[in-house]
Sequence to fold (691 residues):
Amino acid sequence: MVKKDEKTTKNKPNSESDKIVVKGARTHNLKNITVEMPRNKMIAITGLSGSGKSSLAFDTIFAEGQRRYVESLSSYARQFLRQMQKPDVDEIIGLSPAISIDQKSRSNNPRSTVATITEIYDYLRILFARVGVPHCLICDREIKRITKEEILNTVITQVLSHNKKGKEVMGVEIENQKIGIFAPVVLGRKGEYYQLLYDLLGKGYERVKVDGQVFKLREQIVLDKNKKHNIDVLVDEIYLSEFRDKKQIENAKERLSEALEKAIEQANGLIKIQYPDEEKLMSVKFMCPYDGFSYPEIEPRLFSFNSPYGACEACNGLGTKEFMGETPCDVCNGARLRKEALAVRIDGKNIVGVTSLSVEDAKTYFDKIGLTDTQREIAKVILKEIESRLQFMLNVGIEYLTLDRKAQTLSGGESQRIRLASQLGSGLVGALYVLDEPTIGLHQRDNDRLIKTLLHLRDIGNTIIVVEHDEDTMYASDYIVDIGPGAGVHGGKVVTSGYLDELLTAKKNDSNSLTLSYLRGEKKVEVPKTRREPKGKLMIRGGEVFNIKNMNVDIPLGCFNTITGVSGSGKSSFMYEILHRNLEVRYEKRKRSNETINCKSFTGSEYIGRVILIDQSPIGRTPRSNPATYTGSWTHIRDMFANSPEAKARGWGPSRFSFNVKGGRCEACQGNGEIAVEMHFLPTVYVPCEV
Fold:
């Protein structure tokens, strides 16, 4: 914990330019408040839940800071950005461009991982595309760049071998067999390509193969612009019979060499050879000299499991046999990528091997990575970005997470810190950071790491505003703004504000701030004198999931139980993946089974009547959702009105009193109560529905 006596109060603001001054804030439940806060300090806005903390920090200060920054851009740029409404405030002085990191539920996208959220995976894809060393899928030898002459010799060797065998292929005798030299000008890309085909005709080419079908360029070729296509232009065709004797081979070799040169030029280094019995894609970039295996173009998309070009074809980049499933794909074994991507390595590891490392091990790998001088020069900028993100994750205490850990399996605290790593890692100067309870889900051991990171951001010249209840964070802050005194309509006022050391050392708490009373030790949470007796227990044996290994635990029933431990110890894994999932299969109407999940045995559930999961997911799905509809009380209110004599006389049912369906809602605003007026590059204006 950062102690209050370790902080300094030097350089306090003494002019308007050193302050953020909010005058007349009336957003939500704020009562026309005016408050001053110092710039380039860490400020904690605290108070009861619902008192108006977020209304001040996010809906007023951040909203106005972002709005002013966006307004400084051109009208063309503004039309592509989310425009924010001007908050209900008279004036705000001393604002900087604002960056918000609010609470957000974890991602349920099965493709989202720690590496993708922090953008480390994007840099890894570029790194492997630019300095990765491809290996042959057949012999596992390292593949180096090849020349046109090596491709030429490979083709001739293949043709001579075919002639020697002298076999009939697809009903065509050897005398009539030929090879086609194609330039693959389009590989798996969307578009109509009308101009490209027209240009090819102008260059003297006569035929193309589009998605495996041969067309004459003089005929009309219509392509679906929304579908991916492969287009190969035929450069030349040579009969195998022209490779009979030495003189013929020399002549054919010269013609073949010219065709290869044209294909390389036309397709940016790629060549496709159509033999009588097979088709081979080759490249002047990478080809195995031992067995002729050739790579496709090694681009960042080859390493993306979100791209059809890089994803495993069997599982479409999910790594499992079915969507949201758990059984690994038979083809890629959960790696998600096609085999060519997995055969590209840096210092002995492919991209999946790197992402399987923990943050701590990945930092060690990149610190000691073995690269040539040329590779290091190419990768210098990429490595800097990767290492800075890894270091930030180390700083906030999530060094134990593997980079390939799925986002949907992370705890709330882990998700928050990963988002902090992706957004705060840039280390801007002169910015205003607004954070919503950044210590949420953190063990006290890890608070210190996170607080030191925030203080570092402050020390390099930023203003930090945190909405917090956490004692450590408040003690570490320079300035406190306590909003209250109550919640909702009873809040929205500034109870007290000032430098923390002055508030703590003052002789008397004149403000009647509840927060300050606890910080000064005048009030404290008492330990209960008596405890409840348990009424049965859940017995879990052999728990195994993620980092939980052979867990045996009893959960007393009829009691208030707390699952605690340091961040990453397995609390959420135990809660969601063992405890809740086993109770869910026993009490979910659609399931109803005694199956055990992620453990050897699960007993004692007969003492429970039902199971309810309350997690951090947002409760509102539509803009019409409100506490009455979510809790179900609106259903009873509608029933009550539908049972009134007036409603019965008119034949009205409960739906007549619903703002979600036709017949009950106002059709002018679709039950929203307000009309959205689009203003293009200005914020959308919402006006009350007049109807």
